[in-house]
Amino acid sequence: MQDGAPPGSGQQLDSSFPAPPDYYSAFTDANVQRLAEVDCKAELDDPELKLLVPPPPPQSGTYSSFGRVWHVHDRLPTLAEQNIPQLYPEGPVDRVAELKRLNRSVIFEFLDLVDVLVKDPSQYTARTDRIRDVFVNIHHLINEYREHQAKETLKLMIQQQIDGKRQTTERILAKCQELEQTIERVKLEAADTGTELTVAIAGDADQADGTTHADTGQPKRTHTVPDDGLARIIDAVQNLT
Question: What is the tens place of the pLDDT at every residue in 57-97?
């Protein structure tokens, strides 16, 4: 919810099953029909009809949704905005070193918590809050890597797609080379055996019968190869023997 929202819409909406806003009762069939007949919705005088017109989307700042505050432009909120003390220096830092230091701090804070629980249990709240602050600082440092992580993940996905396409292309080229070699072998074996390879077009009659060699006058040995792919040519090679 942003400033200028309909009245009654500021009720608590962070329960598992939030109740509808108070102004839902204004959405009657009659009001919807009346609103449809209005030419300029920006100049409505009827306060009840104004509830039917959604507010413009926020352009900056924050808005509330189901009891939680969200930034219009998604960004990582600072520790100060979350009212959390920052336990590492301002400005550019060695995040790896700071994460290791904070990780050790968690152990020391936990040992202090155990000591407090033994000596003065009434002071445990301050120690648990301190541990919470350390963990929030750790998570904040990690979350600062999210943008970099997203870019690297996208680069990895694109590289995997490129590698997959290259491998597929290499397999296709290898298969094409294998088929070309098979075709050449078919031609050589046909030439060695004096067999003439012809291509049969679907619907054409077989005219191989009765043909003779022009030089010898002997009947030709022909083998018809259907024109439906290289796989049939490979079958033709097997039938030559």
Answer: 888 888 877 777 777 877 777 888 888 888 888 888 888 89
Q: What is the mean pLDDT of the chain?
A: 77
Report whether 183 contacts 233 (CB < 8 A).
Answer: yes
Dist CA 207 CA 220 (whole Å): 12
Q: Which two tokens stand for residue 202?
A: 């679907």
Read off the pLDDT band of 40 (50, 70, 90): low
Q: CA 198 to CA 220: how far, in whole Å?
A: 12
99-151 per-position pLDDT tens digit: 999 999 999 999 999 998 998 888 888 889 999 999 999 999 988 888 888 99
Query: How far is Cα 21 from Cα 9, in angstroms, rounded to an integer?
Result: 5
**Around Cβ 233, how many Cβ atoms within 10 Å?**
19
> Is it the case that residue 6 has pLDDT exceeding 60?
no
Residue type, 32: V
**222 vs 236: CA distance, rounded Å:** 11
Q: Is the pTM of this model over 0.85?
A: no
- Number of Cβ within a 10 Å radius of residue 235: 12
